[in-house]
Each structure stands twice: as C-alpha cells, then as structure tokens.
Amino acid sequence: MLLVYRQDYSHSSDMGVRGSGHFKVGFYANFNVQNIAQEWVEESKRLLYLRTINNVKKNIYNGTTPLRAGNLHHELPEDHRVLNNHYYLHDRRDHVSSMSIVNRCDSTELVNHSMINQPARYVSAPVNVVNNSVKQLSAPSGSKVETLWLDSSLADNPLHTSEAASELDDKAHDGDYKRDCKIVAQKVIPSLPITESFSKESENARKVLAGIYDKVMIVDNIESARSVVQLLRTKYKGFIHACDTEVSNINVKEETPVGHGEVICFSISSANSDSQAADFGNGKTCIWVDVLNGGRDVLMEFAPFFEDPSIKKVWHNYSFDRHVIENHGIKVAGFHADTMHLARLWDSSRKTDGGYSLEGLTNDHRVMDAVPEDLPNAGKTSMKTIFGRKKVRKNGSEGKNISIESVEKLQREDRELWICYSSLDSMSTLKLYESLKSKLQEKDWVFDGCPRGTMYDFYEEYWRPFGDILVKMETEGMLVDRTFLSEIEKTAVAEREVAAEKFQKWASKYCPDAKYMNVNSDTQIRQLLFAGIENRHKSGETWPQSRTFKVPNQEFVATEDKKTSKCRTIKLYGIVDDLKIDMFTPSGWPSVSGDALRSLAGKIPTEHIYSIDDNQGDDEGTGGSEDLKQDVDDKSSYGTAYEAFGGGKKGKEACHAIATLCEICSIDSLISNFILPLQGDHISCKEGRIHCSLNINTETGRLSARTPNLQNQPALEKDRYKIRQAFVAAPGNSLIVADYGQLELRILAHLTNCKSMLDAFKAGGDFHSRTAMNMYQHIRDAVEEERVLLEWHPHQDAFAAERRKAKMLNFSIAYGKTAVGLSRDWKVSVKEARHTLKLWYRDRKEVSAWQKRQKELAHEKCEVYTLLGRSRRFPNPAHVRSSQRGHIERAAINAPVQGSAADVAMCAMLEIERNTRLKELGWRLLLQVHDEVILEGPEESADAAKAIVVECMSKPFYGTNFLKVDLAVDAKCAKSWYAAK
DNA sequence: GGGCCAAGCGCC
DNA sequence: AAAGGGCGCTTGGCCC
C-alpha cells in the first residue's frame, strides 16, 4: 500500500504552517499517481539513515559538538536506524539540510519542508523525498507542497484512502504497529514546520534540565509500578509526597477538569520531615510514571497510594490534579498541602515575577531561601521555554510567536527531556513546600489579637481543610436548567432586536451610516456623541471628527451586485455638539458606560423603550432613584441630552434613544456574559451540572470563581430574565441559600470596637435606618415621638433619602471612600459630602481611630491583619507614587474588613462541613458567594438542614461566636437560586 | 488568527 | 492629579 500524505502550505506572505495543520491523506491532483508510486519506489532505494534520537540527544546533552551532517552521513552504520530525530533536525536543520537531500536539491528551504518538517517522528523506516515533490516545492507562491511517504512493506497495494490512513493510525495508537511492520509510515501531525527553532534560552534550559534525568526512576510497566507503590506504602509511608500530573485531552482555558482530561504521566518526589529524600533505587529521588505507554493499569497500581488518607500528599494547585486523577476513578485522599495556598498565605500580593505559578515561585529566591541545600535547578522552567519553538523568518531572524507540540507528542518524541520536565514539577513542588512551610513556621499567628502558634498552624487548622472543601464543591457543581436558559435567550434576543432597531433608526436621522453601526462598540458610540472632543488628560489630543468602521454585513446581503462581502465600511461622525460630559474613562475620554448614558438620557421608564407595549413591570427602573417621581413628559426628568439636541420633541427623542442604547447594552451583556456561556457545552458536563473553579487567590482571602464565574450571576432587579432561576436543585432535591446580614459592617464593629455600631447591632431593627437616625436630629425626634419605627419596608420608608444616604455611607466607609467620591455619586458639592461624612463619623470615633491605625500599620509594617490573623502585604508607601499611596491606604482600611469577613465565611463552611448530621441527611455545599453559601440536598430534610446551616453560620468558630456582635443569618429553601431570594 | 489592552459590567 | 475595596469575563479595536 502506498500512502500519500499531503499537506498544504500557505505561500501567501510567509512560508510555513501555522498551528496544528493536519496531514491529509490524498494525492495531488496534478500528479499521475501511478507514476509517483513508481518513482517513489525507485527513489526509496537510496536510503537516508539518521541516528536514533537517543544518540542525537546524548550528543546534545553532553554538550559535545554536534556532528556535522556530512559526518553523520558517513558514520551511519548500514543497518536500519530509527528515524526519530525530529528534535535534532530542528536544532541542526542547516546541517541536516546540507546532508539530506544533498544531491538532489539546491534549496535549503525545500528540504526543510519536505524532509524534516514532518517525518518520521515515529517512522522507523528509511524515507526519501520524491524529486517531483521537491520540485513542486519551489513552485511559485500559491502552489502546493507535497510530501510523500512510502510504506514499502505494503507496497503491493497502491491505495490512497483515508480509511487506510486511519487504520494505520489506529494500529500505531495501539502500539501494534511497530511490532508488526518493519517499515511503515505513520500519520504525523506537523504542527511545527522547520521554520521554527529553539531559542538560545531554550537550548540552555534544555541542557540544564537534562541534568536531572539520572535522579528519576521511570515507571512504565505494572511490575515496576508495584514495587514502587510498595515502597511508597511501607518504607516511605510517613514521608511527604509531592505529586504532579501532566494531562491531555483538556482545554484548560475552556473546560473544567471535572470530567475532562486524562493523566498521561505523573511524578512523585518524596522526602521525610527532615528534608531527607527518599531513594527509589540507585539514588533516584523521584518517580516518573508513564501512563501513556504504560497504560491505565499502571496508573491504577497507584490507586492505593492516592487513596490512602494517611499518606501525605503535597500539590501545587491540588484542585486540578485531583479532578483529573478522579476522572480515572481514583478517589484522592491524604491532602497535606497546596503550595499555591501556602504561598498565598505567605504573601497575598504577588502580582509580578510569575505570580503564584510554580515557575514563578520556585525561581524566586525570596520564596525559596528557606530550603537548606538549594539545588541549582530547583526552579521549574516553563513548558514554553523548554519545548516552545520560535518561528524563524527567511532571513534567519527569530519571530515572536512560540508554538508548543501537544503533550502526548512531547512525551513520545522528546521523551527524555519530557521526563525531566515533568519530574522537575514534583521535585520543585517539594522544595517549595519545604521552604514555605519553614517560612510560615517562623511567622507568628495572632488570632483576634491573641498569639496562637505559627502561621503554618493556621494553615493546618484552616486552609488545609478549606482547600479540600473547595475541591469537593467543584466536583459537586451546580445543576442548570438549559431548557429554561434557551427560552430566556429567545426573549432577550428579541428584546434586544427591538431596542437596537429603534436606536439605529433614530441615530441614522443624524448620521445615515449609524443604521448599520455596532451599538455594542464604545468607540462607535463615542464617535457619534463626542466627536472632536479633547482628551481630558492629554491636551491637544482630540477625538476625530469622523471615522470609518468595519461592521459585519448582516441584513444587507448584497442586493444587486454579487459582492456579498462579509463586511461593510461605515462612516460615523458627531451628531450633536456640546453634550455635557461629567464622566470620563481613566484614559481621559468621555465615558459611554451605562451610568454616563443614563445621565445623558435622564429617567426614562422602560416601557418607552419598546415600541411594542410589553411592559416588564415597574420594578425595572432605569435611574434607580426612588424619589424622582415626576411625569416622564416633564422635561425636568430628562437628562442633559435633552437640551443638547435642541429640546422639545427632538430632545425627548434623543433621551429616549440614548436610554434605549443603555437597554441594548445591558441586554447584550446579560446574553453574552450569562445566558450563552451557561449553555456552553464546554462548561457544564455530566448531568448538566456546572463545575466552576473556586480559588483562594484574592488579595484579601476571599474566594474567586472561574470558568464560569458563578459569583457574579445577576441578582434581584438586575436579573431581568431571572437567570438565577436556571440554577436549580436536582429532582427530589432542594437548595438552601443562606447569607449573612451586613457581615462586613458587623466585622467592622467588632474590629473597631465601636460602641455606637455595636449598640446598633445589639438593638436590632434596620441598621441603615439606625445609622440615619444617629446622623439626623429630625429623625431622632420622629423616633422619640414614636412617629416612625426603626424597621424598614420598601414602600413605607419615612426618611427614604436619609436612609439611602446612610446605607451608602455604611458601605462606602468600609471601602475608604472619600468626600470627593461621594460628592460625585450624589451630585452634591464636596463641602456637602464632607459634612455628611462628618455626621456619620460623629458618634463613631472608634472607626476613624481604627482606620488611622490601619494606615499606620501599612506604613510601619507594610501589612495589615484579618480577624484570624492572615496578613495582607503592601509595598512600602514611602517608596511609591502618591497616587498609589492613596490606594494603599484605602486598601489597608478595607482589607481587614473584607478579609475578616472572608475568614468568617470560611469558618462557617468548615463548620458546615464538620457537621455530621448534615452529611447524614445528604446535604452538600455547592457554592459560596462571599457572604452566602448554597447547599443542595434531599427535599424532605430541607427544613432540618436549613436550621443546622443557620446554626453553623451564626456560630462558625467550633460552635461558638466570640465576636462582639451577633452574626445574623438569613436562609431559605427553594427549588432554584432565584426562588430562594 | 492569536495576543493584548481598554472599557465596561456582573457580583459581594 | 485623583480621590471606594475585592473579583472574572466580554467585546471591540489594534497589532503582529
């Protein structure tokens, strides 16, 4: 059988293949296939042998001068050698090219493509290049390049079908094919053409990395797996084992590791508590297990190791590895530490130097300096550095883009180095663990002002079990109702269409092309409303008077011409002069955010936005203020656009149109941020549950959620399509949604020991109303005369404006908001804002004193502390710009409050997790949204479980609450998240 | 086509 | 001069 693999090269502007071009089986139409086959057979008699990859590698690792191509040719023995030196070829392509096609080709480039680019990475056969094909390579730009392969053992069957190819593939995959065939061609995926090469940096890193090879015990069969596992479970049972997996079949950017990804190999490095490394034979301190070649059975041999809760395992990013291992049916236990969390606990502010990546941490001497004997190569080197290749241009200069082969391929074809790379992960994780542990052991732990051991003790008591909980929650996931989502998608899209048409119609009266504008583009909106405006920061820089944009050609598919171009170019110019601007973006241009636009439009009720009368109900205010109750036709309710567009009917229309624009934006954002992603196949998997990733990766110790972020699902009135209704309990189950009331304010009261606040919480009633009362004499009078109660009902608020102000202040002050900020929010003078602030602080002197103290701490110690004693570090305020200093001071005020609230929420979750009754009833934590937790469990025990959850949350410290305030908890059972609010 | 940035917006 | 903390994610626009 003759297999003809063909690859198409693009010859347009640059030579070479991008990304992951796949070989296609087929034949080149311009050739006579029979002739080629014949010719091929002829040519293949002149065989070209190359050294095995091992020999080649050895030379390179040893640092000996690589053999020159000519030499290589001569030195090759007569017998068959594995042509498996893709790696070498890449490095020494000039030599190879001069050697390889030497006699038949004068173009280096051609040789590169035809000869080296794809071959033979697995091919254990002599190969050659057909003259014709080579010639074809030199064809003018736009022509195709052929690569031909001969499987001479099957040469009797000159077939060119894709079936044949895939059959061969399957064989290769099963591993049979090497045994059965002496000479074969295997399908190759040539994602890296020869026009890519390693950089100098890579070369060096590869040399260094190769040095650890003899420390690694390679396990690729059941027997060796058994003996190693035996060691792990007996002699080294009490050791600390750093583990790391390499994983295939997952797109980590888009997919959750729950149900996605397979382990292709893993490594384990072990040491005892005195940092003495284990010896797995001949001084090898690390095990590297080949799951790809060894097979799944080899992995399963390690199940008793992974599942033993008494064998301590350390990971860097435990969550990912655990999920992937569990994909193979192994229940991971014995979680001992996550070095990412340790690092975060040590310093929560690593923004640069690689952040909390294993590479960044292990190469940072400030992190690693507690390791006693530091190996020179203890630091991880990224996959990109080791295996990434840069494109090389024709002139020999290096390009910018770096590409990396698939991990499976690296493991097979760049094997030794891959083993080193993978093993180093567990080795450096172990070192990192040791260093961070000793650092944390040196850091005092002060719990709510009382000394209590070291921060490593803190880790063991809190963050270790917390880390385990988070992974469990990720595994649980939340059930989403996709049918429901697709229904609301229809509604949302329809409403968006109506609104978009309305706006475009209006805008096109002023600027015709606006009919086709992208209403989602800030730039285009800015072009219409603020053309010619000067930048607020950079004087002299002005926004252009008019600009052209490319927009997709949707409805306007060419009518007369046959030109159905995908894009059309539109020209937009300003449609209004002197529009008053009161909001700017950080870069100095007028803001076109929802707030800014609403301020232009004024208060326009939603029903005016849709031409069809589909009133969404009056809960959807566009301005949000309750005290603007004027008739919509009263022009005082219109915004600044009214006058700018000339008032009267035109002014009205403009305001309506701009309000419509806001609607479009908000609908768009709901669709693309929530409604669509929640239906994405890549996000939810088994049984329609969504598994986000929960991380302790914030500055303050709050959780964050990713892929998707379930912590920012629209809530309350913003949830116009009831997106939260899509988060449901499984049939027969119920959700419990429980949240703290004013958690941060209560924390603030405790931390500051503010009598007024403590009293207010003790007295109960509505906290914000009470704040308002304390601020304003006339409210106090009213309360004393019993004209009003300190309870709050949405529609019976006697002093709504005052309460709103008080509420805003309550939240703002914890964040360090200034008078200037308040004045802008409230659209009052700075003086007035300052006065209001003063009122707030008047009976809360302790708060100002405490805030002052936090700022001092930031200056003196460069860190502040939470309730449980975690710290947040800051750069030394003395060494930064004054604008940054302001930020540091505000963060210093906020971090203890936010961080302590996070501590309390964490304790509550630990408490819930510890509760055996809850577990017996079958309740599991699903999600945490800062001051709210969501659980799922059997409907019949919902009420009992709810009571337990409330109890856990209000006494989150091992069944007690030592705070000076009560912790108010509001909990509901419901079938959906929406219903529980 | 991928990577990056600015802007904007969702949550607490 | 700017002047509220903490997140994640999307789009558009631009560059390579």
From TrEMBL:
Pfam families for the chain: DNA_pol_A, DNA_pol_A_exo1
One function term, GO molecular function aspect: DNA binding
CDD domains attached to this UniProt entry: DNA_pol_A_plastid_like (cd08640), DNA_polA_I_Ecoli_like_exo (cd06139)
InterPro entries assigned to the protein according to its UniProt record, in alphabetical order: 3'-5'_exonuclease_dom, DNA-dir_DNA_pol_A_palm_dom, DNA/RNA_pol_sf, DNA_polymerase_A, RNaseH-like_sf, RNaseH_sf
Region Disordered, residue ranges: 609-633
GO cellular component: chloroplast
UniProt keyword annotation of Phosphoprotein present: no
Residues covered by the DNA-directed DNA polymerase family A palm domain: 722-941
Keywords, alphabetical: DNA damage, DNA repair, DNA replication, DNA-binding, DNA-directed DNA polymerase, Exonuclease, Hydrolase, Nuclease, Nucleotidyltransferase, Transferase, Transit peptide
The UniProt record lists the keyword Iron-sulfur: no
Family, per entry: Belongs to the DNA polymerase type-A family.
Name of the featured protein: DNA-directed DNA polymerase
Organism: Eleusine coracana subsp. coracana
Taxonomic classification: Eukaryota, Viridiplantae, Streptophyta, Embryophyta, Tracheophyta
